[in-house]
Amino acid sequence: MATKRPSTGSSPSRVAADATRDRVAARRRGVKRLAAVVAALLLVGAIAAWFMTRVIPVWGDDEKVARWIWGNLVPGFGPCDSVQGELLRSIEKLRVEAQDDGNASWDDGFEGYVDFLGRTLGSEPGLAPDDKAALQTDLERLRDYEDPCVDDGPYQRLTAQAIAFCRRHPFVTSRTIDPAEVR
Questions:
Q1: Distance between CA 120 and CA 134 in Å, rounded?
Q2: Contact status, residue 157 vs residue 94, Cβ threshold 8 Å
Q3: Mean pLDDT (the chain, rounded)
């Protein structure tokens, strides 16, 4: 804060110059404070935006959660860099291959999707024995590429288990992408 000089012996022009200098200094301090507030707000906004894309909103029904994951974690092409996105993408890849293509293009990549689902969903510590058995049954059904699974049941059950996984793990979990997964 600027200190006032004693006015004894000061000319009116000197007093006016001091007053102008004080007003300019006060404006500069105000601008600096405003810039600091704006920077803080931008930082808070950036953190909030990052947080909103790294935390899955798990309230609402399964379809709403799945739509959010598809819209925010699954890229238009190629594997996901998150476990939660890759769960849904893997299920859909398996469904499309069986129902639309009759597993004609089945290769090690599709085996990898089944393995990923089994490792990720099957390793949940709180998974009930009945759910674990149902998971294994559905995965074995999908793994039988010579008899494509065109029934929606296994895909719907796997999707429900994937959404349950996402509800238990709402913070987006990063994963390393294997170049062999790109398809």
A1: 15
A2: no
A3: 87
pLDDT value of position 27: 83
Please determine, for residue 95, whether its predicted confidence score (pLDDT) is greater than 70. yes
Residue 2 tokens read as 């600027």
Alpha-carbon separation of residue 3 from 8, 17, 18, 33 (angstroms) = 15, 14, 10, 20
Residues 69 and 136 in one domain: yes
* Range in 104-108, 121-125, 139-143, 175-179 the model is least confident about: 175-179
- φ/ψ of 27, rounded to 5, equals -65, -45
C-alpha span between 4 and 7 (Å, rounded):
9
d(CA 175, CA 25): 52
Q: Which amino acid is at 34?
A: L
Residue 22, in any domain of the structure:
yes
Q: For the whole model, what pTM was predicted?
A: 0.72
Amino acid 26: pLDDT = 78
Which domain does 24 fall in, by range?
Answer: 7-54
Please, which residues bridge with residue 171 across strands? 55
Q: CA nearest 145: which of 102, 96, 183, 109?
A: 102
